[in-house]
Amino acid sequence: MAHVYREVRQTTVRDPDLVAPAVVHNGTNMAARIVSLIGGIIVALLGLRFILSLLGANRANAFASFIYSASHPFVAPFFGLFNYQEQIGVVRFEFETLIAIAFWSFVTWMIVRLLTIGDRDRVV
Fold first, then answer.
1. Which of 80, 90, 10 is nearest to 55 (CA)?
2. How far apart are the C-alpha atoms of 99 and 18, rounded to whole Å?
3. Does 8 score more than 90 pLDDT?
4. Phi, psi (deg, nearest 5) at residue 36
5. At a CB cut-off of 8 Å and minimum separation 6, what does 26 contact?
6. Looking at residue 79, what is its pLDDT?
7. Could you tell me the CA-to-CA distances from 43 to 18, 51, 63, 69, 115 in Å, in that order?
8. Global pTM?
9. Residue 47 in 3-state DSSP?
């Protein structure tokens, strides 16, 4: 039995339109990633605040107290929208927190898009 071996050669394509662009890690890309991370943390805090408020979490609990305190600066501008007086520890559907989540998500998205204008590989 005879074995046949074939040599496989790799060809290199030089046409830039046919080759996927390499991911470039420049300063704007890194800045966009940092903004996305910070925005994600803010939205996560607001999401936890919404869930804790919906379930009527006790402010005396250390975790609930931390979440309420850390998220307060980001939701406070929206408290006056619906004639709401802040009450912690009471079961409440906080529309203000949902609006704050939408607002901060939009702000994060806009900043990331502004930082990545002209980039072929955009950060989500």
1. 90
2. 44
3. no
4. -65, -40
5. none
6. 83
7. 39, 12, 17, 14, 20
8. 0.69
9. helix
